[in-house]
Amino acid sequence: MQLIINRLLSLEPFTMFMYIFMFVSCIVFPIIRNILVKMGKSLKAWVICSFIPITICIVHLLLNLYDRNENITFELFGMVYIASIFFPLMTPLCRKKILFHVGAVLCSLLIFCGTFISMATISSLHVRTMNYSRMSMTESYKSVIRDMKIYYPLTEWKEIDYSAIDAEVYPMVEEAEKNNDYALFSQALRRLTYLIPDGHVWYTDTLDDEGSVKLWEQFIQHNYYGFIMFTNDDGKTRAFNVNENSDAYKAGIRSGTVITEWNGKNITQAIAETTDYIFEENYAVKENEDFILPVCLSGIGEDEIEVGFIDSDGKNKKVMIQKTDVFFYYGIEAYNRLMHNVDDENFSSRMITDDIGYLRINEERYNNVLDIKAYILGHYPEIEDRVKKELDTMKAQGMKKLIIDLRHNAGGNPYISAAAASVFTDKKGTVLTLKGTAVHEANIEIKLSGDGSYKDLPVVVLVNLKCGSSGDMLADIMNKFDNVKLVGMTPSMGIGQAVGERCMLPGGCEFSFPIIYILNEYGEINVDPKADRINRIPLDEKIPASEELIRAILEGDGEDDPELDYVTEHCFD
User: Fold this and answer.
1) Per the domain annotation, does 199 fall within a domain?
2) What is the pLDDT of residue 440?
3) What is the DSSP pairing of strand 429-435 with strand 510-519?
4) pTM of the predicted model as reported, rounded to 2 decimal places
């Protein structure tokens, strides 16, 4: 509830006016009708006034559409727009006393609930939605940086140097404004996200056709040379997925071939200097960035590049290799396999051996209505019931151990993290605290219920570098339990603060970043690494990124799960 009040007070003036007008009108509007009837006055003016709320909402909608904010307008304000329709629906009953009062009560409740749900929805998503879309590109960029300096909670924690960021990004914004180039403006925002090591700092765009084409041209400028590179745990960078029709294959490069040079540079140096991430990611954890950089380097070079490798006779060899295609199509397939980007049902479960159960949690979202209710009431018993139901079913089938799969977990509602974790511990108390907003001091506690139904069950929590936000939080909470082991080929994303500000910018671009502190049970910054970029949720056991495992992931049929097989065979005592 406190988030909702904070949210109302932080809205831009016209949006705040719309919400307040709706809340007040649903109570005052029927009262005014009764007063006019008792005074014997005409109700024509009252009927005309019933169209004021819907007129205000239409103006609000048109302003957002004019500013090219349609991608969030209906998401955030749809319910209040619908609620405004009920005002004129009351007017046909205005002269029928009993029917009017019944209808007025029902309509007022619907209007109030619709408006309240809209407020609760945007409170669960963002604390501030700032409209800078009517500004110039340079002015809107400056507004974003100003807001980050004031509200971003990790500026000092991560030692963010805004002057250095401005030196690189602002010239791009100036050029974009000079040429009215929204695609370049979008690229500048993307670069801004890269320079802030926080996966909760991101941008999106809804550019027109011309701008979208320009952005797509940036995606496909990278070249495919016939294979994907990856650096294994032994420190050697190898080729995988080698195309038999490529120059690389004809020159003797095979799956597992060690690559020693790339475009005239030692492979280690070339990887270290790679800053074009292709997959539009920014990495809070340096280890996770290093994990994916060799894949990115596989697509960086001119139409022809020189590649050094160790041939089948153990000799160093250099060859010139022509590009064969656009890298993006091949790179994204490899990326998705490494990130375990699969379409599993959330909170689904199954037995994977006679005694090992498997629970998949791919995001901390469950039911839109219940998710919002959890933000309002501060607990989520439905999640505990769902997790216990899945575990009870597997227990009846012989489960004695459990794997909880959080790979590629998209995050969501932190109340789900606490509720799911509560099933595995009898501990009670606060594990997360939301503290401070752009408007008021808040002190919202998220607690473990101490359900403890499966507190003695051996559990392995499986993560990777795409497990973030509330997924990070769930991994962090459970990592402190005696019966839980945290395992992964990489640590999780390391992003534990709540995204709170959403800035609408020229050309349909948006920029979002955290503005709410989320603290752990010790009152410290939750999850996010410091400027050293070292993950603060240490793995208990690391899955080796061996040549054999990576080959199985990148070159398998996509149906098997080599990481899960490794956990099943090696990670239970």
Assistant:
1) no
2) 45
3) antiparallel
4) 0.82
* 202: Cβ contacts below 8 Å, ≥ 6 apart: 193, 282, 511, 512, 513
Q: At 276, which CATH number?
A: 2.30.42.10
| Other residues' Cβ atoms within 10 Å of the Cβ of residue 34 | 13
446 and 431 Cβ atoms separated by less than 8 Å: yes
Q: Which residues pair with 485 in a beta bridge?
A: 460
Model confidence over 195-218: pLDDT tens digits? 999 999 998 876 555 655 566 566
Share of the chain above pLDDT 70, in %: 83
Q: How far is CA 63 from CA 1, 58, 70, 80, in A?
A: 28, 9, 10, 15
Query: How many separate domains does the chain show?
Result: 3
478, 422 in Cβ contact below 8 A?
no
**Distance between terminal CA atoms of the chain?**
45
Question: Is 197 a member of any domain?
Answer: no
Residue 323 maps to a domain: yes
Q: Which residues pair with 514 in a beta bridge?
A: 499
CA atoms of 59 and 62, how far apart (whole Å):
5
Separate counts of helices (H) and strands (E) for the chain: 21, 20
- Is residue 347 within 8 A of residue 386, CB to CB? The reply is yes
**Which of 225, 248, 243, 221 is CA-nearest to residue 554?**
243
DSSP string, 96-131: -HHHHHHHHHHHHHHHHHHHHHHHHHHHHH-SEEEE
42: exposed, middle or buried (Cβ count in 10 Å: 0-12, 13-18, 19+): exposed
Q: Using an 8 Å Cβ cutoff, are 339 and 283 in contact?
A: no
Domain that holds residue 311: 223-338
**DSSP for 454-509?**
TTTS-EEEEE-TT--THHHHHHHHHHTSTTEEEEESS------SEEEEEEE-GGG-
Decide if pLDDT at 114 tops 80.
Answer: no
pLDDT of residue 116: 63
Place of tokens 């410290």: 524
Q: How far is CA 127 from CA 9, 13, 352, in A?
A: 10, 15, 42
User: Nearest Cα to 432, choosing from 381, 371, 480?
Assistant: 480
Task: Indicate if 359 and 467 belong to the same structural domain.
Answer: yes
Residues 368 and 515 placed together within one structural domain of the fold: yes
